[in-house]
Specification:
The protein has about 300 residues and is an alpha/beta fold. The protein is built from eleven helices and 14 strands. The chain binds adenosine-5'-triphosphate and magnesium ion (MG).
Length: about 300
Amino acid sequence: MLRNVVKRFGSLTAVDGLDLEVPAGIVLGLLGPNGAGKSTTMRMLTAQSRADSGEITILGYAMPRAAKRARALMGVVPQHDNLDEELTVGENLEVFTHLYRVPRSQRADAVERALRLAHLEDRRDTRADRLSGGMRRRLLIARGLVHRPRLVLLDEPTVGLDPQVRQELWGLITGLRDEGVTVLMSTHYIEEAERLSDEVALMAKGRVVARGVPGDLIAEHAGKTVEEFPAGPDGPAGMEDILRSGEIPTRRTGATLSVLRAEEIPDSLRDTLGRGDTRASNLEDVFVTLTGERVE
Ligand SMILES: Nc1ncnc2c1ncn2[C@@H]1O[C@H](COP(=O)(O)OP(=O)(O)OP(=O)(O)O)[C@@H](O)[C@H]1O
Ligand SMILES: [Mg+2]
């Protein structure tokens, strides 16, 4: 899908030789911190932005040359809300049935379906500027699905939503996948990436640094459990040295020292270390191990 893609803004390289393939029918989570290049990647996929070099194909169509054709098969939900404030909910959807070239005879049905999807049937005549934040986001997502796309690009779909609406959207995304739709979703929520994604691509500084099934990546790079120790009187350095001698990876989280693969701490080190608080390893641990950066 993307091969060796580079995008520069002046002296800044936002996307730096990116390779990314999205297999049909899966949810691929693109996880990375602010500025990693997620939105820039999304915009190149929709031909809103042009790559400086590299190749991009979508559902077999070369971009940006065949952008029109690709767009008809692809739904896009941007990170930044761009609803038409002056139009009602129904009208916002209607406009996109035209843009996405839904045949005239199917437009009314497509709008109804999208209203149901967004749970906004009773708001069809409300102007967009009168909706709550969660409703706007649901409308934005439904708008990208109005033409039943085969591929959906969701850029930070749940940012700023309350937990209940977020969970509803998770259900919606999983439902799309179950219908056979391919989903590429960027996020910097670890939990969201872990729960929803069949595979994740960890992105940092314009590149994919690791890619795979979340559970596999976690097992490979962070083991089963993480144990967190409060730093001793000399700070975490002394403990780090001890653990390093046993080749046990660690990371600092503020004043605490997190020990990855804690299940592998040998008994011989236990006397010195004692026991910390144990939790399951997660994608954040993988990310920090590989990049030294945090995601959120
Ligand atoms: N139009 C632009 N002009 C100049 N620089 C840009 C432009 N768009 C993005 N950038 C820069 O490119 C880098 C990547 O930005 P991008 O928006 O792709 O990051 P992101 O991974 O989506 O981050 P976030 O999680 O904050 O949304 C950033 O350093 C950003 O400042
Ligand atoms: Mg972004």
